[in-house]
Amino acid sequence: MSSAIEDYALIGDCLTAALVSLEGSIDWLCWPTFDSDACFAALLGTHQHGRWKIAPAGSEQPRISRRYQPGTLILETTFTCDSGEVVLVDFMPPRDRASDIVRIVRGVRGTVHMSLELIVRFGSGANVPWVRRLRDGTWQAIAGPDMVVLRTPVPLHGQNLATTSEFDVKAGDEIPFVLTYEASHLQLPRAVNPLRALQETEDFWIEWSDRCSYHGHNRELVQRSLITLKALTFAPTGGIVAAPTSSLPEKLGGQRNWDYRFCWLRDATFTLLALINGGYTDEAVAWHNWLLRAVAGSPADMQIMYGIAGQRRLLEWEAPWLPGYEGATPVRFGNAAHAQLQLDTYGELMDAIRQARAFGIDLDAHMWAFETALLDHLERIWHLPDQGIWEHRGPPQHYVLSKVMCWVAFDRGIKSAEEFGFKAPLDRWKAIRARIREEVCAKAFDKRSNSFVEAYGSKFLDASLLLLPAVGFLKANDPHMRGTVENIERHLMKDGLLLRHDPRQERPGETLPHEGAFLACTLWLADVYVLAGDIDKAHELFDRVAAVANDVGLLAEEFDLDAHRQTGNFPQALTHIALVNTAHNIHHALNPAKEPAQQRAKGAPDEMVEAEASGKADGTNRRTPAGNEPVQSSRVG
């Protein structure tokens, strides 16, 4: 049985990543890249679906602790036994041609009897490889296109379609194991010097993490989040996967099990801000360039997500041979949501491009032509219902955030044209912007509850409404937004964290179990508190999310408030992005020009007057700040 989600740690080489359990078992690894089939899939099944475990043998009941070497992605797991103590060092060196996992067992004191079990199952747990010993210390497994080679001085034995070993580790010993992936038709990959690889890996991560420019509250956790984002980056293209895993359930035992090994446009601007404010301009530029390559072509063909190299066909299928994480089925690979209409992505893309210009990132000379074509297309479709930010698989609706992000798209286009002197049909765009705002104010605000609602005609809430001040649609202290926040606190807050869906709601066409608290949404509420000037409440909420992080600082998508466990794909980029941005918002609350919240929210209208709420708005923006003057809000352009 796999471990609790929060009992895993991450190692990676910026092309793929592995999850290592508290017990020293690598239970998940897609090789050679994030979106490849897994060769260790015990996370979604049993040990027979592939794992690599190194731990004290037999009846030993060790006390276990672990940590990352400071500023690195090098994991140290300490096993303390009655007979002695050992440290298991796990890492993946920055990739040359082949990809390696290096594991070094160090003896600290006494003598510990250790065991190794290596079960390789290519094809995400489906394919048993052909295994052979090539020479002393070299072991090979092949199936179809895949090959792995293990090199170690420890004798290995075949047993029940697994490779095993038992060995003693004494104080001062350093026993290495290097597992390397290569395509099966190629020559054996070169041997790695484990200790040299360890030093090179440490140097790589220390140099990278030393660039972190954040020096505020909980710096170590913020730095760990930035390291995690780097680890989730596909280095050749700059794309950042939402998570390295697939089908970890949003609700334990449930059916909402999705593949997150892709790159979502929705994360674009918050990712850009997190990286730039964290001191990582090169990574921000690489992410932005991936974004622009991925969406290149006709705006009508734009998707909500792409593969790590910009692939567009992400067909969803089920793996019936995998019983799922703690029985949560079906196990899915690919993601059918890539073909959905989600209008908010248009605003996200336009905002990301504008933020890139504001930070001085060089854009292609033809980018403005693409932006105008995108807005021409959006002009024809913004009025349509869609599947919304949460990618509902029921009937499309007029989701409020989707409409607001259409407003953002035209707003950012107008601001870019005015600030940079681009040729544009400004009168038409301003009229569309005003029309969208007027419609949202008239149809999305429920006067009886004094709150915005999830979708036109709905009476229910949705945590994504917290992004309205963040993107500059209105200010956080606007009375309509204050009413919305009060209702969200009343109905979506549970045990100090925030649900994303209204628990009072039943959704047509979907079985929507009462899932856990959505951690990014909880941090969005903290951002609203910052924008409203309530820093103490923001700080308190941030600390609640920080307390949910596991022992090595990693966070999943959600937190099950009943089981007190992390749920959803892990580690989740969106959660760590939100944590970085909220930390910056709180730390720089006395210097608004530096807040990510301020960076997006500049230019929010002063208020949403009652005439607008009743559908009588004139639709004009009452305040357009000059230049880069900071204005209260969060992503307001």
Keyphrases for this structure?
2 domains, 637 residues, alpha+beta, 16 helices, 28 strands, single chain, 15-stranded antiparallel β-sheet, three-stranded antiparallel β-sheet, Beta-galactosidase, Chain A, domain 5, Glycosyltransferase
Structural domain count:
2
Q: End-to-end distance, in Å? A: 48 Å
Low-confidence stretches: 609-634
CATH architecture of the largest domain: Alpha/alpha barrel
User: What general form does the structure show?
Assistant: elongated
Residue-averaged pLDDT: 91
Kindly provide the radius of gyration, computed on alpha-carbon positions and rounded to a whole number of angstroms.
Answer: 25 Å
Secondary structure topology:
Layout: E1 8-12, E2 17-21, E3 25-30, E4 38-40, E5 51-56, E6 63-68, E7 75-80, E8 84-91, E9 99-119, H1 122-125, E10 130-135, E11 138-143, E12 146-151, E13 157-159, E14 162-170, E15 174-183, H2 194-209, H3 219-231, E16 233-234, E17 239-240, E18 263-264, H4 268-277, H5 281-295, E19 305-306, E20 317-318, E21 332-333, H6 344-358, H7 367-381, H8 400-420, H9 426-443, E22 445-446, E23 451-452, H10 467-470, H11 479-491, E24 493-494, E25 497-498, E26 517-518, H12 519-531, H13 535-548, E27 558-560, E28 565-567, H14 573-587, H15 596-601, H16 610-613
Antiparallel strand pairs: 1-2, 2-3, 3-4, 3-5, 5-9, 6-7, 7-8, 8-9, 9-14, 9-15, 10-11, 11-12, 12-15, 13-14, 16-17, 18-19, 20-21, 22-23, 24-25, 26-27, 27-28
